[in-house]
Amino acid sequence: MKTVSPLKIIRLSTFLDFGGVEKRLTNIAHVQDENQWIFCAINKGGTAENEIKKQHKKVVIFNLPYKIPNLFTLFKLVLFFRKEKPNVVHTSGAEANFHGIIAAKLAAVPVIIAEEIGIPTQSAMAKKIFSAVYSFADFVVGNSNEVIAYLKTHNKVLDKKVLKIPNPVIFPNLPETRKIAQNVFRIISVSRLEKVKNIDSMLRVVARLNEINIPVQYSILGDGSEKWHLEKLTKALNIENQVVFLGFQERPYSFLLSSDLYVLTSFSEGFSNSLAEAMYCGVPSLTTRVGAAQEIITNNQNGWIVNVNDDDDLFQCVQSIIKRNKDEQIAIGQKGKATIVQKYSLQNHIDLLMTIYNKHYK
To answer: What keywords are assigned to this protein (predicted)?
Structure first.
């Protein structure tokens, strides 16, 4: 077997600010090996850029237009790849996939990896375009069975080229016990505030709990275009005393550790980093039936699963969880933590990546 060590690996995303892709790349930047990792963003940097730099990894922010298609961006990426001569280019997200894969092919990069980060909303034309683009890649990675199925069905990616690689989770040192409030049940969501996350649903559930005198506090960590709408809905539902908007938090662990229940209400999802982080904290977790969440959680064993966009199902599940005694809640939280530690470590993720990064050299 022909081998090369170390590899020069370029990870290309659209942004390196905050979000699911950025969180995954920030986690990957913690890897300590002989390979040379270069993290690049087509457009802007920010929070993730700074976190990756703290791990002493090279970061390149191009500040280029990212909307598909852009010939200038494509040209600049080709020049960059030819200059750097990487062994691997691994792109994540639609804009990075489109421009990065084509540029890597034109630059004769030995190994080209595309990565779909969730269930995209694609027109019939977009499906055909990405089917053609993905044909240039050696592998196309997805982070859940749902994403893999989409790639095969809608983008016509061949079975031999598609591979599921779940997101990695970083395991920081945490206190052995969580801070549990006795007088109020604390619920938390950590999410971008966008329509697809369906935070509205949980706000309506909080209002219903308030109506039947079940005291809860709902903390929302995150920012996004829906923040104004959600604040307005909170006022309309008369639950301003029960809901707090805490904005984006780089390190959500202290908030998670003081919560009784984590809730994910998305309409669709690839792999929820915040769900995995909450479960690692031992926080009992509830999710809609989306993406990798269905693979991580076994209902009523290490967490709970409810139907998508079903307020009644969500309300009944939350109410039943609140009625459980604390020992039962804690036990389910601990089972959730064990699941994350066993299956979603950074090393597991890197090992899977290396099986495809080394493809050209076997």
So the answer is: Transferase
Q: What is the dihedral of CA 181, 185, 190, 192, to 10 degrees?
A: -140
Residue 229 has pLDDT above 70, yes or no: yes
Check whether residue 150 and residue 246 sit in a common domain. no
Token pair of 224, please? Answer: 């996004």
One-letter amino acid at 186 equals: R
Co-location of 192 and 337 in the same domain = yes
Tokens standing for residue 111: 């190994």
Q: Is the dihedral angle over the CA atoms 137, 134, 273, 73 positive or is it negative? A: positive
Is 195 within a domain? Answer: yes
Residue 145 in tokens:
């069975």
d(CA 35, CA 215): 52
Residue 2 has a pLDDT of 52
Residues 307-330 have a mean pLDDT of: 96
pLDDT band at 3 (very low <50, low <70, confident <90, very high): low
Query: The pTM is what?
Result: 0.85
Q: How far is CA 303 from the centre of its chain?
A: 19
Could you identify the residue written with the tokens 């598909």?
A: 68
